């Protein structure tokens, strides 16, 4: 066993401190960041910047379809929303363990703190995730290590247990004090990140699952725009601003239909699905017109085209849908 470790790195304060404390205790650390489709607030560029500030190599590892399967059918269930925290943590630890030989590393580091989170960081659940991932004796939690049994790297003296910490509970003042001591600034709020903990997001995700549209592209669009279920095989997403309009256009696939109201300011809308009927098309046009700066009680022209054939534009005349009717289609 050598002193090289992979540290699960979210970019949050705990993961930053875990790297610093581990280095101080003798570990040669490489940061490992899983690119998670359900985490919106931590951007890849920020992660790169923080790793550079810490002076550690960085591995960016995308999560794929096997990760989506545990979200769909978690062994240990969900939290208050669609957040399978224990299954998610175990999955990432298992993936990290699989990467150890590739990077000639011997153990893992995590920024977990005993008692900090009510579901995933209780003693029982921390033991459970480590056991499920098969990392019980090679997972070092440097911020809370003295509250836990010594791991193999500690027992062998590869990492100095005396330089590890005993943080516990939900009070984050010790972490903030340590950050000041180490000169660490500009770290994100601990509340940020996982969309699966949001009830409204969970409803949108359940809609995807129930209608057979469960893939990474659709998941990445769940947090963009107003979303409407038109039929089992058709869904509409309407941008709320220029940034969302651009994001929708960039995310469109060949079979998607893009819509705008002609001659009026308004949103870009994307009609997607595997069974788009004329009725769904007309309904989508009426909803799109509802959010445009146009008269609401007379016909307007909505142009539409498929992303793979933008020159072949078609048009349909519709009366914008009334707000009361729009609400019957909205996913919320």
From TrEMBL:
Thil AANH domain span: 3-143
A Pfam family hit: ThiI
Keyword ATP-binding: yes
Keywords: ATP-binding, Nucleotide-binding
Domain of life: Bacteria
Domain NFACT protein RNA binding: 225-330
Molecular functions per Gene Ontology: ATP binding; CCA tRNA nucleotidyltransferase activity
Name of the featured protein: Uncharacterized protein
Source lineage: Bacteria, Bacillati, Bacillota, Clostridia, Thermoanaerobacterales
